[in-house]
Write a structure and sequence with these properties.
The chain contains 11 helices and 13 strands. By secondary structure, it is an alpha/beta fold. The chain has a single domain, classed as 3-Layer(aba) Sandwich (Rossmann fold). The strands form 4 sheets. A 7-stranded parallel beta sheet has the order 3-2-1-4-5-6-11, sandwiched between helices. Strands 7-10 form a two-stranded parallel sheet. The radius of gyration is 19 Å and the shape is globular. The two termini are 26 Å apart.
Length: 313
């Protein structure tokens, strides 16, 4: 296997690239180091990879890369590069999301036409579902995203399907459900909660705390992603979830237990675009990919907290 990993300096992308390299795969990473969070954090994600002879990194946007040349001899493409975050996707910033999430995906898919690529795995999001679908969420319901970010992720999913149907590009889309763990982006929930606790600041809680999420540990997400590259049905879509629906208030209790510190909560108004509940039906992923999450929420929170407090990779 020779893999192209877009977004290789990111949270999930760096874990995926490491797992592939450790398995003997030659990996070409590409990342444009967007300013959505500090570059030194992304460089820290790459520390192990930069020392690996099977890994090379190209620093540029997909729109400026020589994609046909990059795809030479590549057997598997993992497309994780994206502009992340629900709350920043409104207003003028929406164009950043359309460029990085939709246009970049189209350019990559176009470059894959006629190439002997075995799979193109696209990292989508549970944000495509919105609030009007029954729980647990199944891949065959009609998605109705409630954020501009979710709209762009769904649009890119549709492009993947389009290029499969029209050009036989073997795409597989994965709808990740709230991935967490070591290297989680600093703007994401658990990273913000742990930072607040360790710095004796109030933890922000948007809404009543009874909203629920299906949390997925990053190692489980990576396992599913590699399985999708080997066994995913071209043109298919799969939910990748942690296997349990948990209230935010319960998360706060687990954080108290993991850190051994009191938690001060500051209640704030709900944010535009935040879904009320998520919960993945992973029947399809179990059947086709052999996917089953192995890390409990408490285990995963402990691993993330230990990584954050140790201050290293």
């Amino acid at each position: 296997m020779k893999a192209l990993v877009t977004g290789a300096a990111g949270f999930i992308g760096s874990h995926l690239a490491e797992r592939l390299v450790d398995a003997g795969v030659t990996v070409v990473g590409i990342d444009c180091f967007t300013d959505n969070y500090a570059r030194p954090l992304k460089e820290r994600n790459l520390q192990r990879l930069r020392q690996a002879p099977r890994f090379s990194l190209i620093e540029r946007p997909l729109a400026e890369a020589d994609l046909p040349a990059l795809l030479d001899d590549v057997t598997h493409v993992f497309h994780l590069a994206a502009q992340p975050g629900v709350r920043n996707s409104w207003g003028r910033d929406f164009r950043v999301y359309t460029v990085n999430n939709v246009e970049a995906t189209q350019l990559l898919l176009e470059a894959c036409i006629g190439k002997p690529v075995e799979r193109v795995v696209y990292a989508s999001s549970s944000s495509v579902y919105g609030d009007e679908v029954p729980l647990p969420m199944r891949e065959d319901v009609r998605p109705q995203p409630v954020s501009p970010y979710g709209v762009t992720k769904l649009a890119a999913e549709q492009l993947c399907y389009l290029y499969h149907v029209s050009h036989s590009v073997p795409t597989v889309s994965l709808r990740y459900f709230t991935v967490y763990g070591p290297r989680q982006r600093p703007d994401m929930g658990f990273a913000r909660f742990f930072s607040a606790v360790t710095q004796d600041r109030a933890v922000p809680m948007f809404g009543d705390g009874r909203q629920t999420r299906d949390f997925t540990f990053v190692a489980d997400a990576v396992t599913a992603t590699i399985a999708a590259a080997m066994r995913g049905k071209p043109g298919g879509v799969y939910n990748i979830g942690g296997g349990s629906r948990v209230q935010l208030l319960h998360v706060f209790e687990l954080i108290r237990q993991v850190t051994g510190r009191p938690l001060r909560v500051e209640r704030l108004e709900p944010q535009r675009g935040d879904m009320r509940d998520t919960y993945a039906d992973t029947t399809r992923a179990r059947a086709d990919l052999g996917f089953a999450p192995t890390v409990t929420l408490e285990q995963g929170l402990r691993a993330q907290y230990e990584w954050m407090t140790a201050g290293h990779d």
